[in-house]
Amino acid sequence: MSFLTVQDIHHTYFTKDTAATALSNISLKVEEGEFVSILGPSGCGKTTLLSIISSLLKPTTGTVLLENKPISTAKNDIGYMLQQDYLFPWKTIEENILLGLKLSKQLNEKTKSAALGLLKQIGLTGVERQLPKQLSGGMRQRVALVRTLATEPKLLMLDEPFSALDYQTKLKLEDLVSNILTEFGKTAILVTHDIGEAIAMSDRVFLLSPSPGRIYKTFTIPEELRKISPFKARNHEAYPSIFQTIWKELESLESAEE
């Protein structure tokens, strides 16, 4: 039995006058501790699929199971890291990272201590009393990661969490997030437009076709890349070959769409 099972997902958006099918016949499985990415042309339904997997959106047909239970019963087991950090600007960093614990009624001295410890672990010491506006974009995303991990979710949903950052900060955060998720044995799904990011961070990459989104191809990242950090993976001799393969497939999908 797989940790996460997505079975025969089909989704159509209905308006008064139109019906637009975003996803068709999506089935995939993700194992515990695995990191997978979803790639595809713009408008192929990547974010729709992520919303369905996280139970924020109910599919027209199909099922999503987490540990063999409907995903709708496991909302507290899912954590999110998005493009925007969505920190409350009037709350201190400490208040922000403890918010999820407070809302889920898990806040106690032990969980608070663990969250503050994680803040130090990712290199943010002495910022607890500061406000988000006093931190850089990369630092705020690290705070958002701590807030996400503080509630100990079983599944992490990452929706282009590094796309608003400068390239150097993005590379550093890729390594940091990858190391933290590996250390905690977390399962993660990343939606990204960045082929390099998908290759460097993932065990597998699902490439979606456009309009409606279907799983066009699945790429298993070579083991020699999976066992090293994302930064090192980008500089490994095996990296250019898998990059070119995925690039050509994505290019062919975009050309066919035109």
What does this structure look like?
Helix content is 38%, strand content 25%. It has helices at residues 46-53, 93-103, 109-121, 137-150, 167-184, 195-201, 223-226, 230-234, 239-257; strands at 4-14, 19-30, 35-39, 61-66, 69-70, 78-82, 155-159, 187-191, 204-209, 214-220. Strands 6-7-8-3-9-10 form a 6-stranded mixed β-sheet, with helices on both faces. The protein has a 4-stranded antiparallel β-sheet with strand order 2-1-4-5, with helices on one face. Strand 4 (61-66) and strand 5 form a beta hairpin.
The name CATH uses for the topology of the largest domain is: Rossmann fold
Q: How does the major sheet shape up?
A: 6 strands, mixed
Mean model confidence by pLDDT: 90
The percent range for helix content is 25-40%
- The poorly predicted ranges are none
Q: What is the N-to-C succession of helices and strands?
A: EEEHEEEHHHEHEHEEHHH
Pfam family, one: ABC_tran
Domain ABC transporter: 4-235
GO molecular function: ATP binding; ATP hydrolysis activity
Protein name: Taurine-transporting ATPase
